Amino acid sequence: MFIARTVAELRQHLSAFKKPAFVPTMGNLHEGHLSLMRMGKQLGDVSVASIFVNRLQFLPGEDFASYPRTFDSDCDKLRSVGCDVLFAPDEAELYPQAQSFKVMPDPALADILEGQFRSGFFTGVCTVVLKLFHCVFAHSGGLAVFGQKDFQQFLILRHMMTQLAMPVDIVTGATTRASDGLALSSRNGYLSADERAEAVQLSMALYKLAQAARAGLAGGNFDVAAAEASAMATLRDRGWQPDYITLRRQSDLSPVTAANTKPLVVLGAARLGRTRLIDNLEV
To answer: Which terminus of the chain is more exposed, N or C, with fewer CB under 10 A?
Structure first.
């Protein structure tokens, strides 16, 4: 595996390839990341990962300083799935100047759900992703693989690529889950043993809402707001602090109406102790 620390090294190495398959990460890799790498290996002529903890997408008081940095073990995991190239810049390399030019995503998509509770988050995500794309795809088009667990992020990035005419296809990989159904996340490592046992309740709440939506919408008498409120209340009663559990249209995350019932997705975000978890299920 070739490890590039600078943009120039990365561009020079990738100049020989026509279709990079890129998986951007912040490190602390788990099986979900590795499944995306395996997908990329099948779709491109060179597989590329990045490890960069992006300050721009952390809000004040969030875990930028304490975010797990496990570079050596991450490299071992990437090698185990045949990753060809790792781009691992430091902050001075990727942001040699204070990043005053930023990508402002469509507020209709970016200021709801995650954007409502993490103001400016998607600006940080879009800015670093576009910058990484200019590094990886400097000589050709290609594809980038993102996990479906970050459904809103995936949707925003796909719109960004279309509107900015970037020669990059955004591909999504299914959410990787533990045996009990918990979506894998680098932040799961923050959970205590008791919290880890409880954490599956988020995916269970989404599953129950999805099941209720399938049955209720088919019968034409489903009260979406009441079902969402009930799911939130169930988690609160168990000691969670939910930000949202909601049923939305997949294409644009707009609320469900009588004339707008499919395809749908259930999305949720909730804090358990000091750990904030997100998840979603397609309906």
So the answer is: N
pLDDT in tens, 27-72: 999 999 999 999 999 999 999 999 999 999 999 999 999 999 999 9
For residue 166, give the 3-state DSSP assignment: coil
Q: Could you give the C-alpha distances from 226 to 20, 209, 233, 246, 262, in angstroms and in order?
A: 46, 11, 10, 10, 19
Catalytic entry in 13, 30, 33, 139: 33
H-helix segments, 168-221: 193-219
Given a cut of 80, is residue 260 above it in pLDDT?
Answer: no
The single residue listed with the structure tokens 């990059």 is 168
Classify residue 223 by burial, with Cβ atoms within 10 Å: 0-12, 13-18, 19+.
exposed
Strand partners, 21: 47, 143
- The pLDDT assigned to 155 comes to 96
Q: Tell me if residue 139 is catalytic.
A: no
Which 3 state secondary structure label does DSSP give 137?
coil
146 and 154 Cβ atoms separated by less than 8 Å: yes
Residue 179 lies in a domain: no
Q: Supply the range of the domain harboring residue 263.
A: 186-282
pLDDT of residue 215: 85
Is there a contact between 1 and 78 (Cβ–Cβ < 8 Å)? yes
Q: Order of strands, edge to edge, in the sheet holding 241-249?
A: 241-249, 264-272, 275-282
Quote the number of domains for the chain: 2
pLDDT category of residue 281 using cuts at 50, 70 and 90: very high
Q: Is 252:105 a contact under the CB 8 Å cutoff? A: no
